[in-house]
Amino acid sequence: MWNPVIGLEIHVQLKTNSKIFSSASTDFGAKQNTQACAIDLGMPGVLPVLNEEAVVMAIKFGLAIGADISNNSIFARKNYFYPDLPKGYQISQYEIPIVSGGSIDIVIDDKIKTINITRAHLEEDAGKSIHDLYPNESAIDLNRAGTPLIEIVSEPEMQSAKEAVQYLKNIHSLVRYLNISDGNMQEGSFRCDANISLMKNGDKKLGTRAEIKNINSFKFVENAINYEIERQSILLDEGDKVIQETRLYDPVKNETRSMRSKEEANDYRYFPDPDLLPVEIDNNLITSIKKEMPELPNAKKERFIKQYKLNEYDIGILTADRELSEYFENTLSQTKLNPKSTANWIITEVLALAKKSNLSVQNYPVSHEDLKTLLLNVHDETISSKQAKEIFDRMWNNSEKPTDIINNEGLKQISDVDELNKIVDNIIKNNYKSVEEYQSGKEKLFGFFVGQVMKETKGMGNPKIINEILKGKLKK
Ligand code: ADP
Ligand code: MG
C-alpha cells in the first residue's frame, strides 16, 4: 500500500489597485495588452518601485497564520524564457521571503489537523498565453504581467485529496476575510500547483513527486490529485519509477499529462535584483497592521457558537465566506428574529437560489434589508412561512420589494381571531357528522377541519391561530 504525500503552492493575486512594481492598473478584463507598462515589460532603462500596499497585504497574511515577518527581505530575479514573460525573468523572492513559517488548521473527519506553511513570498505574475482564440496560433495578453502575488508554500504534510482541498479552502476563505484578494478562481486570482508523491509505510524518505501546475478549481484539484495517486500507484506496483516532472491537468479527459521534466532551483539562476532595495519592515508597521486585523474565521466561528447558539454545521456554512457571515449578521441585527431560523432561511432558501443562479453574495439580488423585512413579516405572522418562500422567489427573480408584494396582492395572513372564529363556527355547523366522528376518537379528522378553514380563507388563514380555535371548539 502506498501513502500519498501532498504539498501545495498557492498563488494568490493581491487586490492592490496598481501593479507590484509599477502604477499600471490591475483591473481584470481590460482590452488585451493595454495594462502593461514599460516597467512590467522590463524595457531598458526603467526602474521598478515596490508597491507598499502589496507589502502590507503580505504582512496581514503572515500575521493571520502566525508566521514570522522578516524585517529584511529581498527580491530576486528568477530567470527563464517564456513568451508571456518578455523580461526573461520574474521578480520573486528566493533566499529571504517576507513570510516564513506559520500554519493553518483544517478539520478532517471531526479531527483537527495542523498544516505547516513553509513560506509565503511576494512576486509578480506573468502575462497570459491564450491558446483558444485563433485556430493555429497562440496569443499573448500581457495585462497580467506585474500583478502582485503571494505564493504560499506548504510543507508536504497532506495525505489525501480531501485534506488538500480542505487546506486550499481554508486559505481561500482566509485571504477573503483579510480582504487581500478577491479569490476569484475562474479569473485566475487564486490557483495552485499540487505536488504529489507516494511512500511506503515506514519509509523515511519522501518519494519522487510530480507537480501539477496551475489548477484553478477545488474540484479539479481533488480530481487531479486522485488521478495522480492512482497513476503513481500503478507505476510503483509494477516496479517502475515515478519521474520528477511537471504535469498538466486536463479537466475534459480528467487526466494529468506530462508537460516538461522538472526544473531545479539552480536552473533559474536566481540572483538579487540589482534594481530593488531590500524591503525593510519596521516593527511599528507590523504592530499597526496587527491592530487593524479583521475578525478571522476561527474567532468568528467561536463567537457565532456563543452569540447565536448555532450548530457546527450551520456555522461552518455561514462563516466559510466572510460576506455570507455578514449577510447573516446584518439580516439579524437589531431585530426580534430568531438566529436559528434566520440561519436556516439563509442556508436553505437563499443558498439554494444563489446556487441555481450561480451568484456570490456580493451579487445577490436581494439585500439583507429586504430579507430582514420579509422575515419580520413572518415573525409577526403577517404572512406564513410558505408565503414567504414564494415571495422570496419573486424578490430574487424580479427584484420586487417584499412590502410591495404583500400589500399589492393582499397576501396578508388572516390572523383576526373574531373573523376566524366565525369561519370555524360555520364549518362545525355544516359538518356535524364529522364533528361527532372526531369527538368519538377519529382524531385524524382534525386535518380535514384545518383544510376546510384554509379553503374558506383561500389559504390566508393563520395556521397557528386556526389550530388553537379548532382545538377549543372541537372539544367535547
Ligand atoms: P519547487 O516546486 O518550486 O521546486 P519546493 O521544492 O520548495 O519548490 O517544493 C514545492 C512544494 O512541493 C512544497 O509545497 C512542498 O511541500 C512540496 N513537496 C516537496 N517534495 C515533495 C514530495 N516528495 N512529495 C510531495 N510534495 C512535495
Ligand atoms: Mg513548484
Identify every distinct bound molecule in the structure, by name, code or SMILES. Answer: adenosine-5'-diphosphate, magnesium ion
Number of strands: 17
The major beta sheet can be summarized as: 10 strands, mixed
**Helix/strand/pairing class, anyone?**
alpha+beta
Overall mean pLDDT stands at 94
- Tally of individual domains: 3
Intertermini distance: 73 Å
Give the C-alpha Rg. Answer: 30 Å
Low-confidence stretches: none
Quick one: overall form? elongated
Helix content: 40-55%
Count of individual helical segments: 16
Strand residues, percent: 15-25%
Summarize the structure.
The protein is of the alpha+beta class and 476 residues long. It has helices at residues 38-41, 52-64, 161-177, 218-237, 283-291, 297-308, 312-320, 322-332, 339-356, 368-379, 385-398, 402-408, 417-430, 432-439, 446-456, 463-474, and strands at 2-13, 68-69, 72-73, 76-79, 89-92, 99-100, 103-108, 111-124, 128-130, 139-141, 148-154, 190-200, 210-215, 245-250, 255-261, 271-272, 279-280.
Structure description:
With 476 residues, the chain is α+β, with helices and mostly antiparallel strands. It folds into 3 domains: 2-285, no CATH class; 295-408, no CATH class; 417-473, Arc Repressor Mutant, subunit A (Orthogonal Bundle). It has 16 helices and 17 strands. Strands 1, 2, 6, 7, 8, 11, 12, 13, 14 and 15 form a 10-stranded mixed beta sheet that branches. It has a 3-stranded antiparallel beta sheet with strand order 5-4-16, with no helix packed on it. Strands 3-17 form a two-stranded antiparallel sheet. The chain is elongated and about 95 Å long. The model has no long low-confidence stretch (mean pLDDT 94). The structure holds adenosine-5'-diphosphate (ADP) and magnesium ion. Residues 5-9, 153-156, 195-197, 206-207, 209, 211 line the site of adenosine-5'-diphosphate.
